[in-house]
From TrEMBL:
Protein name: tRNA-2-methylthio-N(6)-dimethylallyladenosine synthase
Gene: miaB
GO CC terms, sorted: cytosol
Enzyme class at the top of the EC tree: transferase
Function according to Swiss-Prot or TrEMBL: Catalyzes the methylthiolation of N6-(dimethylallyl)adenosine (i(6)A), leading to the formation of 2-methylthio-N6-(dimethylallyl)adenosine (ms(2)i(6)A) at position 37 in tRNAs that read codons beginning with uridine.
Organism: Candidatus Chlorohelix allophototropha
Domain MTTase N-terminal span(s) in chain numbering: 2-121
Amino acid sequence: MKQYHIHTIGCQMNVADSIRIGSALEQTGYTFTDELGEADVVVVNTCSVRQRAEDSAAGKLGQLVSFKRQNRNLLIAMTGCMVPREEAGKAALYKRFPVIDLLFDTLDPQRLVELLPDRIEQPQAGASIKNKIGVTAFVSVIYGCNYTCSYCIVPLRRGQEQSRPVEEIVEEIKGYVRRGVREVTLLGQTVDAYGHDLPTRPDLADLLQAVNEIEGLWRIRFLTSHPKMMSYKMIKAVADLPKVCEYFSLPIQHGDDQILKAMKRPYTVAFYEKLADTIRKTVPNLSISTDIIVGFPGETEQQFLDTYQLLERMKFNEVHVAAYSPRPGTVSAEQMEDNVPIEVKRERLQAVEQIQEKIALEYSRALVGTTQEILVERMEKGRWHGRTRNNKPVFFDNPSLPEYEGFDWHGKLVDVVIEKAGAWSLVGHVAGTPTIIEQTQVETEVCEVEPVAGKRLIPLTMARN
Ligand code: SF4
Protein backbone atom coordinates (compact mmCIF):
# COMPACT_ATOMS: atom_id res chain seq x y z
CA MET A 1 0.00 0.00 0.00
CA LYS A 2 1.35 3.46 -0.90
CA GLN A 3 1.69 6.06 1.83
CA TYR A 4 2.07 9.81 2.03
CA HIS A 5 3.20 12.22 4.71
CA ILE A 6 2.48 15.96 4.98
CA HIS A 7 4.64 18.29 7.02
CA THR A 8 2.75 21.51 7.78
CA ILE A 9 4.32 24.81 8.80
CA GLY A 10 2.40 28.00 9.62
CA CYS A 11 -1.15 29.05 10.31
CA GLN A 12 -4.50 27.28 10.53
CA MET A 13 -5.08 27.94 6.82
CA ASN A 14 -2.13 25.69 6.08
CA VAL A 15 -3.45 23.05 8.46
CA ALA A 16 -6.81 23.16 6.64
CA ASP A 17 -5.07 23.02 3.24
CA SER A 18 -2.98 20.03 4.28
CA ILE A 19 -6.15 18.14 5.15
CA ARG A 20 -7.65 18.98 1.76
CA ILE A 21 -4.46 17.92 -0.05
CA GLY A 22 -4.31 14.71 2.01
CA SER A 23 -7.95 13.96 1.19
CA ALA A 24 -7.16 14.33 -2.54
CA LEU A 25 -4.27 11.86 -2.22
CA GLU A 26 -6.46 9.41 -0.32
CA GLN A 27 -8.89 9.35 -3.28
CA THR A 28 -6.11 7.65 -5.25
CA GLY A 29 -5.51 4.79 -2.83
CA TYR A 30 -2.73 6.42 -0.77
CA THR A 31 -2.97 6.34 3.02
CA PHE A 32 -1.51 8.74 5.55
CA THR A 33 1.59 7.98 7.62
CA ASP A 34 3.19 9.92 10.46
CA GLU A 35 6.54 8.26 9.71
CA LEU A 36 8.73 9.97 7.13
CA GLY A 37 10.66 6.72 6.59
CA GLU A 38 7.51 4.88 5.49
CA ALA A 39 6.31 7.53 3.04
CA ASP A 40 6.35 7.19 -0.75
CA VAL A 41 5.33 10.83 -1.08
CA VAL A 42 6.21 13.73 1.22
CA VAL A 43 4.51 17.12 0.93
CA VAL A 44 6.02 20.14 2.70
CA ASN A 45 3.32 22.80 3.16
CA THR A 46 5.19 26.05 3.76
CA CYS A 47 4.74 29.49 5.30
CA SER A 48 6.68 32.65 4.57
CA VAL A 49 5.17 35.14 6.97
CA ARG A 50 8.40 35.11 8.98
CA GLN A 51 11.95 34.16 8.16
CA ARG A 52 11.84 31.50 10.86
CA ALA A 53 9.04 29.68 9.03
CA GLU A 54 11.07 29.65 5.80
CA ASP A 55 14.11 28.38 7.72
CA SER A 56 11.98 25.58 9.13
CA ALA A 57 10.95 24.49 5.60
CA ALA A 58 14.59 24.60 4.49
CA GLY A 59 15.50 22.44 7.50
CA LYS A 60 12.83 19.87 6.65
CA LEU A 61 13.98 19.71 3.01
CA GLY A 62 17.55 19.22 4.25
CA GLN A 63 16.37 16.30 6.38
CA LEU A 64 14.60 14.81 3.37
CA VAL A 65 17.84 14.62 1.37
CA SER A 66 18.96 11.52 3.29
CA PHE A 67 15.52 9.89 2.94
CA LYS A 68 15.74 10.45 -0.80
CA ARG A 69 19.19 8.87 -0.85
CA GLN A 70 17.77 5.74 0.77
CA ASN A 71 14.71 5.68 -1.50
CA ARG A 72 15.32 7.06 -5.00
CA ASN A 73 11.59 6.78 -5.76
CA LEU A 74 10.55 9.03 -2.90
CA LEU A 75 8.47 11.89 -4.37
CA ILE A 76 8.99 15.22 -2.61
CA ALA A 77 6.58 18.09 -3.25
CA MET A 78 6.36 21.59 -1.86
CA THR A 79 3.31 23.83 -1.65
CA GLY A 80 2.09 26.83 0.38
CA CYS A 81 3.34 30.40 0.72
CA MET A 82 6.96 29.76 -0.24
CA VAL A 83 5.98 28.61 -3.72
CA PRO A 84 6.20 31.65 -6.01
CA ARG A 85 3.58 32.33 -8.63
CA GLU A 86 5.92 33.14 -11.50
CA GLU A 87 8.00 30.54 -13.36
CA ALA A 88 11.34 32.31 -12.79
CA GLY A 89 10.77 32.17 -9.03
CA LYS A 90 9.88 28.49 -9.24
CA ALA A 91 13.03 27.75 -11.25
CA ALA A 92 15.11 29.47 -8.57
CA LEU A 93 13.47 27.37 -5.86
CA TYR A 94 14.12 24.11 -7.77
CA LYS A 95 17.73 25.20 -8.06
CA ARG A 96 18.01 26.06 -4.37
CA PHE A 97 16.43 22.77 -3.26
CA PRO A 98 17.26 20.08 -5.85
CA VAL A 99 15.56 17.49 -3.60
CA ILE A 100 12.14 18.90 -4.65
CA ASP A 101 10.36 17.00 -7.45
CA LEU A 102 7.32 19.23 -7.67
CA LEU A 103 6.19 22.70 -6.66
CA PHE A 104 2.43 23.05 -6.77
CA ASP A 105 -0.25 25.57 -5.89
CA THR A 106 -2.23 24.74 -2.74
CA LEU A 107 -5.42 25.13 -4.76
CA ASP A 108 -4.26 22.60 -7.32
CA PRO A 109 -3.37 19.30 -5.59
CA GLN A 110 -4.33 17.61 -8.88
CA ARG A 111 -0.85 18.52 -10.18
CA LEU A 112 0.58 16.24 -7.48
CA VAL A 113 -2.07 13.55 -7.89
CA GLU A 114 -1.17 13.19 -11.57
CA LEU A 115 2.44 12.42 -10.67
CA LEU A 116 1.67 9.74 -8.08
CA PRO A 117 3.12 6.36 -8.99
CA ASP A 118 0.74 3.36 -8.73
CA ARG A 119 -2.28 5.47 -8.03
CA ILE A 120 -5.67 3.81 -8.23
CA GLU A 121 -9.13 5.30 -8.33
CA GLN A 122 -10.22 3.71 -5.05
CA PRO A 123 -9.68 5.02 -1.52
CA GLN A 124 -8.09 2.26 0.61
CA ALA A 125 -8.80 1.31 4.20
CA GLY A 126 -6.02 2.66 6.41
CA ALA A 127 -4.81 5.74 8.21
CA SER A 128 -6.38 9.00 7.04
CA ILE A 129 -5.17 12.54 7.66
CA LYS A 130 -8.75 13.28 8.72
CA ASN A 131 -8.20 11.09 11.79
CA LYS A 132 -6.09 13.98 13.04
CA ILE A 133 -9.17 16.18 13.18
CA GLY A 134 -10.71 16.33 16.64
CA VAL A 135 -13.80 18.18 17.76
CA THR A 136 -12.83 21.36 15.92
CA ALA A 137 -11.81 21.83 12.29
CA PHE A 138 -10.50 24.66 10.14
CA VAL A 139 -11.94 25.28 6.68
CA SER A 140 -10.39 27.68 4.18
CA VAL A 141 -13.17 29.59 2.42
CA ILE A 142 -11.24 32.33 0.60
CA TYR A 143 -7.63 32.30 -0.56
CA GLY A 144 -5.28 35.18 -1.38
CA CYS A 145 -5.71 38.86 -0.65
CA ASN A 146 -6.56 41.91 -2.77
CA TYR A 147 -4.94 44.35 -0.33
CA THR A 148 -1.34 45.48 -0.52
CA CYS A 149 -0.23 46.14 3.04
CA SER A 150 3.31 47.37 2.66
CA TYR A 151 4.82 44.86 5.12
CA CYS A 152 2.97 41.75 3.98
CA ILE A 153 4.20 38.95 1.75
CA VAL A 154 0.82 37.21 1.38
CA PRO A 155 -0.50 38.95 -1.77
CA LEU A 156 2.84 38.32 -3.50
CA ARG A 157 2.72 34.62 -2.72
CA ARG A 158 -0.98 33.82 -2.65
CA GLY A 159 -2.27 36.20 -5.34
CA GLN A 160 -5.76 37.66 -5.65
CA GLU A 161 -8.75 36.58 -3.59
CA GLN A 162 -10.45 33.38 -4.70
CA SER A 163 -13.55 32.21 -2.85
CA ARG A 164 -14.75 28.64 -2.74
CA PRO A 165 -18.43 28.07 -3.62
CA VAL A 166 -20.85 27.91 -0.68
CA GLU A 167 -22.02 24.38 -1.62
CA GLU A 168 -18.47 23.03 -1.70
CA ILE A 169 -17.72 24.47 1.75
CA VAL A 170 -20.99 23.13 3.18
CA GLU A 171 -20.25 19.64 1.82
CA GLU A 172 -16.75 19.67 3.31
CA ILE A 173 -18.13 20.67 6.70
CA LYS A 174 -20.86 18.01 6.55
CA GLY A 175 -18.09 15.46 6.01
CA TYR A 176 -16.28 16.74 9.11
CA VAL A 177 -19.46 16.63 11.18
CA ARG A 178 -19.92 12.96 10.21
CA ARG A 179 -16.46 12.38 11.75
CA GLY A 180 -17.43 14.05 15.04
CA VAL A 181 -16.45 17.68 14.43
CA ARG A 182 -18.70 20.06 16.37
CA GLU A 183 -17.02 23.42 15.72
CA VAL A 184 -15.62 24.86 12.49
CA THR A 185 -13.55 27.96 11.92
CA LEU A 186 -13.98 29.50 8.46
CA LEU A 187 -10.64 30.89 7.34
CA GLY A 188 -9.39 33.56 5.00
CA GLN A 189 -6.72 36.26 5.04
CA THR A 190 -9.69 38.59 4.57
CA VAL A 191 -12.57 36.29 5.43
CA ASP A 192 -15.13 39.10 5.28
CA ALA A 193 -14.24 39.66 1.61
CA TYR A 194 -15.71 36.21 0.98
CA GLY A 195 -17.82 35.71 -2.13
CA HIS A 196 -17.38 38.92 -4.13
CA ASP A 197 -15.58 36.98 -6.87
CA LEU A 198 -18.25 34.26 -7.17
CA PRO A 199 -20.95 34.49 -9.87
CA THR A 200 -23.87 34.94 -7.44
CA ARG A 201 -21.84 37.18 -5.10
CA PRO A 202 -22.77 35.66 -1.75
CA ASP A 203 -21.14 37.34 1.23
CA LEU A 204 -19.84 36.08 4.56
CA ALA A 205 -23.28 36.54 6.15
CA ASP A 206 -24.82 34.25 3.49
CA LEU A 207 -22.10 31.67 4.08
CA LEU A 208 -22.60 31.81 7.86
CA GLN A 209 -26.33 31.31 7.29
CA ALA A 210 -25.72 28.23 5.12
CA VAL A 211 -23.23 26.69 7.57
CA ASN A 212 -25.54 27.48 10.49
CA GLU A 213 -28.08 25.09 8.97
CA ILE A 214 -25.79 22.05 9.08
CA GLU A 215 -27.23 19.51 11.48
CA GLY A 216 -24.88 18.20 14.14
CA LEU A 217 -22.63 21.27 14.00
CA TRP A 218 -22.75 23.35 17.17
CA ARG A 219 -20.36 26.25 16.77
CA ILE A 220 -19.04 28.42 13.95
CA ARG A 221 -16.12 30.85 14.06
CA PHE A 222 -14.44 32.87 11.32
CA LEU A 223 -11.14 34.72 10.93
CA THR A 224 -9.45 36.99 9.96
CA SER A 225 -11.66 40.01 9.19
CA HIS A 226 -10.48 43.18 7.46
CA PRO A 227 -11.94 46.37 8.97
CA LYS A 228 -12.77 47.77 5.52
CA MET A 229 -14.71 44.69 4.42
CA MET A 230 -16.92 44.23 7.48
CA SER A 231 -20.58 45.09 6.86
CA TYR A 232 -23.52 45.60 9.21
CA LYS A 233 -25.21 42.59 7.57
CA MET A 234 -22.28 40.38 8.67
CA ILE A 235 -22.29 41.83 12.18
CA LYS A 236 -26.04 41.15 12.44
CA ALA A 237 -25.50 37.60 11.21
CA VAL A 238 -23.10 37.02 14.12
CA ALA A 239 -25.66 38.46 16.53
CA ASP A 240 -28.61 36.52 15.11
CA LEU A 241 -27.32 33.09 14.07
CA PRO A 242 -27.30 30.84 17.13
CA LYS A 243 -24.28 28.74 16.15
CA VAL A 244 -22.01 31.67 15.27
CA CYS A 245 -19.75 32.44 18.24
CA GLU A 246 -19.44 35.97 19.57
CA TYR A 247 -15.85 36.52 18.51
CA PHE A 248 -14.24 38.83 15.93
CA SER A 249 -10.61 38.73 14.88
CA LEU A 250 -10.18 42.29 13.59
CA PRO A 251 -6.57 43.45 13.17
CA ILE A 252 -5.94 47.18 13.54
CA GLN A 253 -2.12 46.87 13.36
CA HIS A 254 -1.36 50.35 14.71
CA GLY A 255 -2.82 53.21 16.73
CA ASP A 256 -1.44 56.05 14.61
CA ASP A 257 -2.97 57.20 11.31
CA GLN A 258 0.34 58.13 9.72
CA ILE A 259 1.78 54.68 10.36
CA LEU A 260 -1.44 53.06 9.13
CA LYS A 261 -0.98 55.05 5.92
CA ALA A 262 2.62 53.90 5.58
CA MET A 263 1.43 50.36 6.18
CA LYS A 264 -1.16 50.91 3.40
CA ARG A 265 -3.95 49.95 5.76
CA PRO A 266 -6.91 51.79 4.16
CA TYR A 267 -8.64 53.13 7.30
CA THR A 268 -8.06 55.50 10.18
CA VAL A 269 -8.02 54.77 13.89
CA ALA A 270 -11.32 56.66 14.23
CA PHE A 271 -12.93 54.50 11.52
CA TYR A 272 -11.78 51.35 13.30
CA GLU A 273 -12.99 52.49 16.70
CA LYS A 274 -16.42 53.34 15.30
CA LEU A 275 -16.66 49.92 13.66
CA ALA A 276 -15.62 48.13 16.85
CA ASP A 277 -18.16 50.17 18.78
CA THR A 278 -20.94 49.13 16.36
CA ILE A 279 -19.90 45.48 16.69
CA ARG A 280 -19.85 45.69 20.49
CA LYS A 281 -23.28 47.34 20.58
CA THR A 282 -24.80 44.79 18.17
CA VAL A 283 -23.34 41.52 19.47
CA PRO A 284 -23.81 40.78 23.18
CA ASN A 285 -21.05 39.00 25.18
CA LEU A 286 -18.55 39.72 22.47
CA SER A 287 -14.78 39.27 22.36
CA ILE A 288 -12.61 41.21 19.94
CA SER A 289 -9.10 40.13 19.15
CA THR A 290 -6.65 42.33 17.27
CA ASP A 291 -3.15 42.28 15.78
CA ILE A 292 -0.51 44.92 16.47
CA ILE A 293 2.87 45.56 14.87
CA VAL A 294 5.42 47.53 16.87
CA GLY A 295 8.61 49.07 15.51
CA PHE A 296 7.36 49.69 11.95
CA PRO A 297 9.87 51.82 9.98
CA GLY A 298 9.86 55.38 11.28
CA GLU A 299 7.67 54.63 14.33
CA THR A 300 8.37 57.40 16.83
CA GLU A 301 7.91 57.17 20.58
CA GLN A 302 4.75 59.28 20.28
CA GLN A 303 3.36 57.02 17.56
CA PHE A 304 4.01 53.98 19.71
CA LEU A 305 2.31 55.77 22.58
CA ASP A 306 -0.73 56.20 20.31
CA THR A 307 -0.88 52.42 19.94
CA TYR A 308 -0.43 51.94 23.68
CA GLN A 309 -3.22 54.37 24.48
CA LEU A 310 -5.44 52.75 21.88
CA LEU A 311 -5.04 49.45 23.74
CA GLU A 312 -5.88 51.12 27.05
CA ARG A 313 -8.96 52.68 25.46
CA MET A 314 -10.23 49.78 23.43
CA LYS A 315 -9.58 47.02 25.96
CA PHE A 316 -9.36 44.23 23.41
CA ASN A 317 -9.95 40.72 24.71
CA GLU A 318 -6.90 39.40 22.86
CA VAL A 319 -3.93 41.10 21.22
CA HIS A 320 -1.44 39.36 18.98
CA VAL A 321 1.64 41.55 18.87
CA ALA A 322 4.70 41.23 16.64
CA ALA A 323 7.83 43.29 16.29
CA TYR A 324 8.25 44.46 12.70
CA SER A 325 10.68 42.46 10.62
CA PRO A 326 11.15 43.17 6.91
CA ARG A 327 10.14 40.45 4.44
CA PRO A 328 12.12 40.60 1.18
CA GLY A 329 10.00 41.68 -1.77
CA THR A 330 7.55 43.78 0.23
CA VAL A 331 7.23 47.54 -0.20
CA SER A 332 8.34 48.29 3.34
CA ALA A 333 11.43 46.09 2.97
CA GLU A 334 12.40 47.58 -0.39
CA GLN A 335 11.54 51.23 0.19
CA MET A 336 11.68 51.95 3.94
CA GLU A 337 14.51 51.88 6.39
CA ASP A 338 14.08 49.40 9.24
CA ASN A 339 15.26 52.10 11.62
CA VAL A 340 13.72 51.24 14.99
CA PRO A 341 16.49 49.56 17.00
CA ILE A 342 15.82 45.97 17.98
CA GLU A 343 16.00 46.70 21.72
CA VAL A 344 13.38 49.46 21.32
CA LYS A 345 11.16 47.06 19.38
CA ARG A 346 11.55 44.54 22.20
CA GLU A 347 10.64 47.11 24.84
CA ARG A 348 7.56 48.21 22.92
CA LEU A 349 6.53 44.62 22.37
CA GLN A 350 6.89 43.94 26.07
CA ALA A 351 4.89 47.05 26.96
CA VAL A 352 2.03 45.84 24.74
CA GLU A 353 2.19 42.36 26.25
CA GLN A 354 2.11 43.75 29.78
CA ILE A 355 -0.82 46.09 29.30
CA GLN A 356 -2.71 43.35 27.50
CA GLU A 357 -2.03 40.84 30.26
CA LYS A 358 -3.54 43.27 32.73
CA ILE A 359 -6.63 43.83 30.57
CA ALA A 360 -7.06 40.09 29.92
CA LEU A 361 -6.87 39.42 33.65
CA GLU A 362 -9.61 41.98 34.28
CA TYR A 363 -11.85 40.22 31.76
CA SER A 364 -11.08 36.83 33.30
CA ARG A 365 -11.77 37.97 36.87
CA ALA A 366 -15.15 39.31 35.82
CA LEU A 367 -16.07 35.74 34.83
CA VAL A 368 -15.40 34.20 38.25
CA GLY A 369 -18.69 32.87 39.62
CA THR A 370 -20.38 32.82 36.21
CA THR A 371 -21.39 29.69 34.32
CA GLN A 372 -19.84 29.29 30.88
CA GLU A 373 -20.71 26.88 28.10
CA ILE A 374 -17.58 24.96 27.08
CA LEU A 375 -17.04 22.72 24.10
CA VAL A 376 -14.58 20.12 25.40
CA GLU A 377 -11.73 19.67 22.93
CA ARG A 378 -9.20 17.45 24.67
CA MET A 379 -7.44 16.37 27.84
CA GLU A 380 -4.42 18.60 28.52
CA LYS A 381 -1.98 17.98 31.37
CA GLY A 382 -4.52 15.84 33.17
CA ARG A 383 -7.39 18.32 32.89
CA TRP A 384 -10.23 18.67 30.42
CA HIS A 385 -9.83 21.64 28.14
CA GLY A 386 -12.31 23.60 26.08
CA ARG A 387 -13.22 27.16 25.15
CA THR A 388 -16.07 29.52 25.90
CA ARG A 389 -18.11 30.77 22.96
CA ASN A 390 -15.98 33.91 22.94
CA ASN A 391 -12.76 31.92 22.88
CA LYS A 392 -11.47 31.92 26.44
CA PRO A 393 -9.70 28.65 27.34
CA VAL A 394 -11.23 26.83 30.32
CA PHE A 395 -9.90 23.84 32.26
CA PHE A 396 -11.84 21.54 34.57
CA ASP A 397 -11.44 18.18 36.30
CA ASN A 398 -13.67 15.17 36.26
CA PRO A 399 -16.10 15.78 39.11
CA SER A 400 -15.21 13.69 42.16
CA LEU A 401 -18.47 11.75 42.11
CA PRO A 402 -18.74 8.00 41.46
CA GLU A 403 -21.00 8.49 38.42
CA TYR A 404 -18.32 10.59 36.72
CA GLU A 405 -15.42 8.21 37.25
CA GLY A 406 -13.61 7.83 33.94
CA PHE A 407 -16.29 9.91 32.21
CA ASP A 408 -15.27 10.99 28.69
CA TRP A 409 -16.10 14.68 28.18
CA HIS A 410 -14.45 14.85 24.78
CA GLY A 411 -16.75 16.56 22.26
CA LYS A 412 -19.38 17.44 24.86
CA LEU A 413 -20.94 20.83 25.54
CA VAL A 414 -20.73 21.36 29.27
CA ASP A 415 -21.65 24.18 31.66
CA VAL A 416 -18.67 25.08 33.82
CA VAL A 417 -18.77 27.37 36.86
CA ILE A 418 -15.64 29.53 36.80
CA GLU A 419 -13.69 29.49 40.05
CA LYS A 420 -10.23 30.80 39.24
CA ALA A 421 -9.03 33.34 36.74
CA GLY A 422 -5.70 33.75 35.01
CA ALA A 423 -5.03 36.26 32.25
CA TRP A 424 -5.11 33.64 29.52
CA SER A 425 -7.29 30.87 30.93
CA LEU A 426 -9.89 29.97 33.51
CA VAL A 427 -10.41 27.02 35.82
CA GLY A 428 -13.80 25.80 37.02
CA HIS A 429 -15.97 22.84 37.87
CA VAL A 430 -18.87 21.23 36.08
CA ALA A 431 -22.09 22.99 37.12
CA GLY A 432 -23.97 21.07 39.78
CA THR A 433 -20.91 19.09 40.98
CA PRO A 434 -18.39 19.69 43.80
CA THR A 435 -16.04 22.67 43.50
CA ILE A 436 -12.33 22.30 42.82
CA ILE A 437 -11.23 24.96 45.24
CA GLU A 438 -9.57 22.48 47.60
CA GLN A 439 -7.57 20.85 44.81
CA THR A 440 -3.90 21.42 44.22
CA GLN A 441 -2.57 24.37 42.28
CA VAL A 442 -2.27 24.06 38.54
CA GLU A 443 -0.10 25.82 36.09
CA THR A 444 -3.00 27.37 34.27
CA GLU A 445 -4.70 28.82 37.27
CA VAL A 446 -2.74 31.87 38.21
CA CYS A 447 -1.29 34.50 36.01
CA GLU A 448 -1.20 37.37 38.43
CA VAL A 449 0.55 40.46 37.15
CA GLU A 450 1.47 43.62 38.82
CA PRO A 451 -0.61 46.37 37.25
CA VAL A 452 1.61 47.92 34.62
CA ALA A 453 2.10 51.59 35.24
CA GLY A 454 0.90 52.73 31.86
CA LYS A 455 3.51 55.37 31.47
CA ARG A 456 6.38 53.55 33.17
CA LEU A 457 7.93 52.08 30.04
CA ILE A 458 7.37 55.13 27.95
CA PRO A 459 9.92 57.50 29.43
CA LEU A 460 12.48 54.68 29.33
CA THR A 461 12.21 54.36 25.58
CA MET A 462 11.81 58.10 25.12
CA ALA A 463 15.19 58.55 26.72
CA ARG A 464 16.62 56.45 23.92
CA ASN A 465 15.13 58.17 20.87
S1 SF4 B 1 -4.96 42.42 4.43
FE1 SF4 B 1 -3.76 40.90 5.59
S2 SF4 B 1 -3.12 39.35 4.10
FE2 SF4 B 1 -3.83 41.14 2.96
S3 SF4 B 1 -1.97 42.32 2.53
FE3 SF4 B 1 -2.85 43.14 4.44
S4 SF4 B 1 -1.87 41.99 6.12
FE4 SF4 B 1 -1.48 40.86 4.20
